[in-house]
Design goal:
CATH superfamily of chain B: Histidine kinase-like ATPase, C-terminal domain
Number of domains of chain B: 1
Number of domains of chain A: 1
Number of strands of chain A: 5
CATH architecture of chain B: 2-Layer Sandwich
Shape of chain B: globular
CATH class of chain A: Alpha Beta
Number of strands of chain B: 5
Strand order of the largest sheet of chain A: 1-2-3-4-5
Order of helices and strands of chain A: EEHEHEHE
Distance between the termini of chain B: 51 Å
Number of helices of chain B: 5
Helix content of chain A: 40-55%
CATH architecture of chain A: 2-Layer Sandwich
Radius of gyration of chain A: 13 Å
Shape of chain A: globular
Mean pLDDT of chain A: 95
Low-confidence stretches of chain B: none
Oligomer: heterodimer
Strand content of chain A: 15-25%
Order of helices and strands of chain B: EHHEEHHEEH
Mean pLDDT of chain B: 91
Structural class of chain B: alpha+beta
Largest interface: A-B, 21 and 25 residues
Distance between the termini of chain A: 14 Å
CATH topology of chain B: Heat Shock Protein 90
Largest sheet of chain B: 5 strands, antiparallel
Chain lengths: ~110, ~160
């Protein structure tokens, strides 16, 4: 996972680059919570552009970060959903709660 | 005599979450003999990942045990059995309900069975409390239409 913080707008972007399952979310969760607490961003964006696999562990990951971000006064968004990722999120209904955006990934 | 299944494989591994990727990739590689689409393969990988995760965090409650995966190919269908010798499920109907989870504190979504059911053609759960759980899932791989020949003819006519 790559982390980028845009100071001026207080936007924290997490670009997930690994497969998302019960094993990998443990690390992603710890790292994300640490960075959110450290930067206290207004917006937290999870970028799924490079995610080649996600199972239901991704739902828990996003709901958990959504609650954590809200608690600290920020808003959470998900970006660049692949069709497979979108399908899993849609089944859980969390997209009724969490805005979906597109962002440009600058490599 | 021809055996009932055209091909079969068995996989056993320790209930560590780092083996989830190993299990789904192995089953997907085996399933690729049926020439599935990328989407069909992704469905199989996701369903296997859900079932194996259940064995590890629910069946064995993160204690060490053996997860067993059997996959069989029959004509254009894959049959996948994933089992553990863990604690078993008391009420299967409740466990299968969307969003039901016994572990909300671990940020589990309760969507595992729902995903297995909708990504595969069938899913059955057998479980005995104290003895373990076995999930059997099947998926038919649609035969591919052969378009290439026609396209080739059109190109050569021009």
């Amino acid at each position: 996972m790559e982390t980028k913080f845009y100071k001026k707008d207080k936007v924290l972007v997490f670009k997930i680059t690994e497969e998302i399952d019960d094993n990998s979310v443990q690390k992603i969760r710890r790292r994300a919570d640490y960075e959110i607490e450290r930067y206290m961003p207004k917006r937290v964006i999870f970028d799924f552009d490079s995610v080649s696999f996600m199972d239901s562990a991704g739902i828990g990951l996003i709901i958990g970060r959504y609650k954590f971000t809200n608690m600290l006064g920020g808003k959470l968004e998900v970006a660049n959903l692949t069709p497979a990722v979108k399908r899993i999120f849609e089944m859980s209904g969390i997209l009724r709660l969490i805005p979906v955006t597109r962002i440009r990934t600058n490599n | 005599m021809k055996s009932e299944f055209e091909n079969e494989m068995k996989l056993e591994f320790i209930s560590k979450s780092s083996n989830e990727a190993f299990a789904r990739i192995t089953v997907a590689a085996f399933a690729s003999q049926l020439d599935p689409t990328i989407e069909e393969l992704a469905d199989i990988k996701t369903a296997v990942s859900e079932a194996v995760t259940n064995c590890i965090i629910h069946g064995y409650d993160n204690r060490q045990g053996i997860v067993k995966v059997v996959a069989k190919l029959k004509e254009n269908e894959i049959i996948i059995e994933i089992s553990d010798k863990g604690k078993g499920i008391e009420n299967i109907e409740i466990a299968k309900e969307p969003l039901y989870t016994t572990k909300p504190n671990l940020e589990r979504s309760g969507m595992g069975f729902t995903i297995m059911e909708s990504f595969m053609d069938s899913m059955e759960v057998e479980s005995i409390v104290g003895l373990g759980t076995k999930i059997t899932m099947t998926k038919k791989i649609k035969p591919k239409e052969e378009e290439t020949e026609e396209e080739f003819e059109m190109i050569t006519k021009e």
